[in-house]
UniProtKB/TrEMBL annotation:
Residues 459-470 have a biased composition (Basic and acidic residues). Pfam families: DUF5917, KELAA, RAI16-like. Residues 184-220, 459-478, 483-517 are annotated as: Disordered. Residues 199-220 have a biased composition (Polar residues). Belongs to the FHIP family. Residues 587-679 form the FHF complex subunit HOOK-interacting protein C-terminal domain. InterPro entries: FHIP, FHIP_C, FHIP_KELAA_motif. This is Family with sequence similarity 160 member B1. It comes from Cyprinus carpio (Common carp).
Length: 735
């Protein structure tokens, strides 16, 4: 009671006393605190029963006012007094002793407010960063301590200051004593305490250790106290403290100081903690989960979770564990991508992806698919891609497809006996192809097409292009027109070039232009005319026209161009003179499996066919000259033993023409199946050969899609019009 009365009386005296110069006022408040310890014998009374909190707040107000009244960057007498008299060192000692009880909270709060309110850089001062470093070591010592909130606020303030001036991180994360020899006293082997090096808690006479390599034993974390304290607080039972600690770690790890980043990632338990927790959440997932649940679970954030355990359990088993896993992955991605690859992907996920259990393969592939969809960190995306595909960029050979076992296994899973696994893995690659990572495309397809050795007699072909035309057309165009595959097609099903190329340069009578590009209307007609009339059904159903594919192709191609514009890609094919013509052509493991599946389109389930054609259309949309030539030019002369997308489809159509003659009422059945797929007809009696009929429908739609892609890409290369669809007026060619 007496102490409270004294406090009230003192405040009254201060209010009536004339205002003192700032420095005198500042010194007065500081001496009032020191006198308390000299005059008071009761050290068990809580600090809140004393005047100390009030004096500390007054000191902060004076320092803030002084800085506001002076020119920017100029240190005033009050701040000089604080630095010269090592006030922060004294406060640290009082806070460490927590005398009187609650003093540690007051000191933490004072440090936090001082660093947060004062604009001039304080941390470079030895009498600031040294006590700050010491106070950091006091944080996180005891979990669920009453000072946890003040501790995390203080640590995050330090992190924010380091974010503003990253070079300061060296005061806190590196042992600098080795740089300063005891030169003043002539000492040769001892390290003298230097006023400009941080107190790391080490014996000054010990030789400091250099950072350890990645896989060595972790050194004493006292060398890196800021990270160690934040890591301790990530184990707090208070979720808000954990989130703030993660924020602090993210700030520190993202600092652009290479040496400090190396110390953090290689010489603390940070990467171990993150990846261990990631593995812990992953192993908590059920062995079997519905891929649809994995794909559709709500988007997550690594911050505070608000959830209802009963609702989650009612939704599906493992929902809470899945959200926790994805949340932690999202956080880890931004912090330590390399560690996630080595200690989680390789150590935990790879065995799951390489297993033989179909249930396990399906679940792990679905989880991997979700991870790829969620990854936005460029660093983690690169590490994920290297984990899945390897780092190879040189030409692929048939003998070398097993060089990277996981890549080989995943591509083989695209043609798995289980349709579910095939679809999920194809979807995985489709998502990969849409990621902004050039290595994905280089590794999967482009490295196999670099030499253009899928084309036969390259020099001879160039000479033939310069020869006189036969009846106004090149010889191969004539051969195509005379091919029995096209001879029965109605002329009404072909696009006239003026309608088709209304925005393009006037069509020439040649099959190829001088630059070697096949006229787009011939390419479009080639794809549209592949499926014979008796196997077409879209013209009999409203809303299945060609325009939809044009609009979709235009939008998707524009998106792909936005992703690829910063890549060093070929806009025109590599000249034959620069190609290695003697190297054998191998289409690559990925295209091989896709072409194999495309060749079986008449005998595969509808959903598998949709996914195969979806992946191939994504590849066809890519703005790369060789990929465009290989997938979308029907008129290239293939080398012996080589195949292209067009040649694969031609073989499928040839097989189709033979098989349709053995199916009674083929056309009515085909139309019925199409209407059922569109929901225009109810499911009734089963239809014979339904798999083949569904395959024919997918084939027709895929050919229309490829034709649309070919036109949109051609138009983009010759026209400056922002929207080719706005100026294309044409008839429905399939009506």
């Amino acid at each position: 009671m007496f102490s409270k009365f004294t406090s009230i009386l003192q405040h009254a005296v201060e209010a009536l006393a004339p205002s003192l110069p700032l420095q005198e006022d500042f010194v007065y408040h500081w001496k009032a605190i020191t006198h308390y310890y000299i005059e008071t014998s009761d050290d068990k009374a809580p600090v809140t029963d004393t005047n100390i909190p009030s004096h500390l707040e007054q000191m902060l107000d004076i320092l803030t006012q002084e800085e506001r009244e002076r020119e920017s960057g100029e240190t005033g007498p009050c701040m000089e007094y604080l630095l010269h008299h090592k006030i922060l060192e004294t406060l640290y000692t009082l806070g460490k002793a927590d005398c009187p009880p609650g003093m540690k909270q007051q000191v933490l709060s004072f440090y936090t407010k001082l660093l947060g309110r004062i604009r001039q850089p304080l941390l470079p001062h030895i009498n600031v960063h040294r006590p700050v470093q010491k106070l950091i070591r006091l944080c996180g010592e005891v979990l669920a301590a009453p000072t946890e909130n003040e501790e995390i606020q203080f640590l995050c303030t330090v992190c924010a200051k380091l974010k503003q001036d990253p070079y300061l991180v060296n005061f806190f994360l590196e042992n600098k004593t080795k740089k300063l020899e005891a030169s003043k006293d002539g000492g040769a082997g001892l390290v003298k305490e230097d006023p400009f090096s941080p107190d790391t808690g080490q014996n000054r006479n010990q030789t400091p250790t250099s950072p350890s390599p990645v896989h060595s034993t972790l050194p004493n974390n006292d060398n890196y106290n800021l990270v160690s304290s934040l890591l301790n607080l990530t184990k707090s039972p208070d979720g808000r403290i954990v989130v703030k600690a993660c924020e602090g770690l993210m700030l520190v790890v993202s600092l652009p100081e290479p040496a400090a980043a190396k110390c953090l990632t290689e010489n603390t338990e940070l990467s171990q903690l993150l990846t261990d927790r990631l593995a812990q959440f992953y192993r908590a997932l059920p062995q079997s989960m519905d891929p649809l649940d994995i794909e559709t679970v709500e988007s997550v954030n690594w911050g505070l979770d608000v959830y209802n355990l009963k609702e989650d359990a009612a939704a599906f088993a493992g929902k809470r564990a899945l959200i926790s896993f994805l949340s932690w992955l999202d956080y880890s991605a931004a912090v330590l991508a390399r560690a996630v690859r080595e200690r989680f992907f390789v150590a935990v996920m790879e065995p799951q992806l390489m297993q033989t259990s179909e249930v396990g393969i399906l679940t792990s592939t679905a989880l991997l698919n979700r991870i790829i969809r969620q990854v936005t960190s460029e660093a983690l995306l690169q590490e994920t891609v290297y984990f899945l595909l390897g780092e190879e960029t040189g030409p692929e050979t048939l003998a070398g497809i097993t060089q990277h076992p996981l890549r080989h296994r995943l591509i083989e899973h695209c043609d798995h006996l289980s349709d579910e696994i095939s679809i999920m893995t194809l979807r995985l690659f489709e998502h990969l192809l849409q990621k902004p990572c050039q290595h994905i495309l280089q590794n999967l397809v482009l490295r196999c097409l670099e030499e253009r050795n899928y084309i036969e007699n390259k020099q001879q072909e160039e000479r033939e292009e310069r020869e006189h035309m036969e009846n106004g057309q090149p010889h191969d165009a004539v051969d195509l027109e005379e091919d029995p595959l096209f001879s029965d097609l109605s002329p009404d099903n072909r696009l006239s070039s003026p309608d088709w190329l209304s925005c393009s340069p006037p069509p020439s009578t040649e099959h190829t232009k001088p630059d070697g590009k096949t006229e787009v209307h011939k390419i479009v007609n080639s794809f549209l005319c592949l499926v014979p009339d008796e196997a077409k059904s879209s013209y009999q159903v409203e809303g299945t026209g060609y325009d939809t594919y044009l609009r979709d192709a235009h939008r998707q191609f524009r998106d792909y161009c936005g992703v690829c514009q910063r890549w060093d890609w070929r806009s025109s094919p590599k000249s034959f003179e620069k190609c290695n013509l003697d190297s054998p052509f191998f289409e690559g493991h990925f295209l091989k499996v896709l072409f194999d599946r495309m060749g079986r389109i008449l005998d595969q389930p509808y959903d598998v066919n949709l996914q195969v054609t979806s992946v191939l259309s994504k590849l066809s949309l890519l703005p790369h000259a060789h990929l465009h030539e290989y997938l979308l030019d029907p008129y290239i002369n293939l080398a012996p033993g080589c195949r292209s997308l067009f040649s694969v489809i031609v073989r499928v159509v040839g097989d189709l023409m033979l098989r349709t003659h053995h199916i009674p009422e083929f056309t009515p059945k085909l139309l019925l199946v199409r209407k059922r797929l569109l929901g225009l007809e109810p499911e009734g009696m089963s239809v014979d050969h339904v798999t083949l009929l569904e395959g024919v429908i997918v084939l027709e739609e895929f050919c229309k899609e490829l034709a649309a892609i070919a036109f949109v890409k051609f138009h983009a290369s010759v026209s400056t019009s922002p929207d080719p669809l706005a100026t294309v007026h044409r008839k429905q060619t399939d009506e």
